[in-house]
């Protein structure tokens, strides 16, 4: 039994931030009931290709994007715009510990599914709302998209190649970091609220905003600015205070070299056949290398391009110089460390396919998270949830389906 197998989560979220939070609960054994729109479901079900393929190689129309954030859940289709649909959600909320939602501010109130309404049927309910800008403030009613949040929240001002350099300018992250980090912070907030409930019997409301999270996660860059009054700038793959601490192109690919002290610099240039660089007063100490980076880095770049990446990595690792490859995802899942940690898992799917997914990175000795169930087909568990949790009989379920409530 998972660490959270005693918890039921009613998941009214879609796309990424909310489902990511719900999936973390599900990995730890919580019973997560995913409420979806009849016929269409979560938007990400259709965000493909690529799609999961059957053993015969045919598309299942289960998008890979959807599969990434929805394992271990049960899918129930309900039209919450109908009175019967609202009744179903209220009845399920009354039997849940947590409600997650990411509708626009105030949208669920008109359906009687907001926190104030649901806590009347479940006083100790923990209710978490995930929005772009939070429930208060001048931007509260705006739609929040990860890309826009990365810009507003300052991330793109410190990410990307330096201005004036080839390819210089702001750059977003390769994944939706504001969404993903909001999902993780929401998980922490809800767990803290559950711990409070277990001690006091009191439920509470958790207000999560992508912009709040994006600002918070800039960590030391925030305090660098707050301490100095000077906004940090983009440095691309270089470091503002350490040289060389960046990417280099070899004769057949790219590597990262992260020289942390003068001794490592000497070992680096020794490995490249340029020991003279470590004796040059312009480069012998890190402060001098920082001051003279524009002279030094082109010389190092020429040195590194003379050999292949595997040769460089072997020689630098042997010398004790921190380094690493820049892997594509094919190389990532072939990496012996990734394989040893069991990061890829496969789950059987009703289509006959095996769903390849990435394992939770959390390792625990007694109650580890598990990938148990495939990401559900749309409405796969509607009948069983209504029957088992709400005691609906087959005739009532049939009427609801005929009227398109479910």
Automatic annotation (TrEMBL):
Keywords: Transferase. The keyword Transferase applies. InterPro entries: CoA-transferase_III_domain, CoA-Trfase_fam_III, CoA-Trfase_III_dom3_sf, CoA-Trfase_III_dom_1_sf. Pfam families: CoA_transf_3 (PF02515). One of its GO terms (molecular function) is CoA-transferase activity. This is L-carnitine dehydratase/bile acid-inducible protein F.
């Amino acid at each position: 039994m998972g660490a959270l197998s005693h918890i039921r989560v009613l998941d009214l979220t879609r796309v990424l931030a909310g489902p990511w939070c719900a999936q973390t609960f599900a990995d730890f054994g919580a019973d997560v009931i995913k409420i979806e729109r009849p016929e269409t479901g979560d938007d990400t079900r259709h965000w493909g290709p690529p799609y999961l393929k059957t053993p015969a190689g045919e598309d299942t129309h289960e998008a890979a994007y959807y599969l990434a954030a929805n394992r271990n859940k049960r899918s129930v289709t309900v039209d919450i715009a109908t009175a019967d649909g609202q009744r179903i959600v209220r009845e399920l909320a009354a039997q849940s510990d947590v409600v997650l939602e990411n509708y626009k501010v105030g949208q669920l109130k008109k359906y009687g599914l907001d926190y104030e309404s649901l806590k009347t049927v479940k006083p100790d309910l923990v209710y978490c709302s995930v929005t772009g800008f939070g429930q208060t403030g001048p931007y509260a009613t705006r739609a929040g998209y990860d890309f826009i949040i990365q810009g507003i929240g300052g991330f793109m001002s410190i990410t990307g190649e330096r201005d004036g350099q080839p390819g210089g300018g702001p750059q977003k992250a390769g994944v939706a970091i504001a969404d993903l980090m909001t999902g993780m912070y929401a998980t922490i907030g809800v767990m803290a609220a559950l711990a409070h409930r277990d001690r006091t019997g009191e439920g509470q409301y958790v207000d999560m905003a992508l912009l709040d999270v994006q600002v918070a996660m800039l960590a030391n860059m925030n305090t660098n600015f707050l301490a100095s009054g000077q906004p940090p700038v983009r440095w691309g793959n270089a470091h503002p205070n350490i040289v060389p601490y960046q990417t280099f192109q070899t004769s057949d690919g790219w590597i990262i070299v992260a020289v942390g002290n003068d001794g490592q610099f000497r070992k680096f240039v020794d490995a490249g056949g340029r020991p003279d660089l470590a004796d040059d007063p312009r480069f012998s100490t890190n402060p001098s290398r920082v001051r003279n980076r524009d002279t030094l880095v082109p010389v190092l770049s020429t040195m590194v391009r003379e050999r292949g990446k595997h040769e460089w990595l072997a020689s630098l690792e042997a010398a004790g110089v921190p380094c690493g490859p820049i892997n594509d995802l094919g190389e990532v899942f072939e990496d012996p460390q990734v394989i040893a940690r069991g990061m890829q898992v496969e789950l059987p799917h009703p289509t006959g396919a095996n769903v390849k997914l990435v394992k939770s990175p959390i390792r625990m000795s007694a109650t580890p998270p598990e990938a148990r169930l495939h990401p559900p087909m749309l409405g796969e568990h509607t009948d069983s949830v209504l029957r088992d949790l709400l005691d609906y009989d087959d005739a009532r379920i049939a009427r609801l389906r005929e009227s398109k409530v479910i």
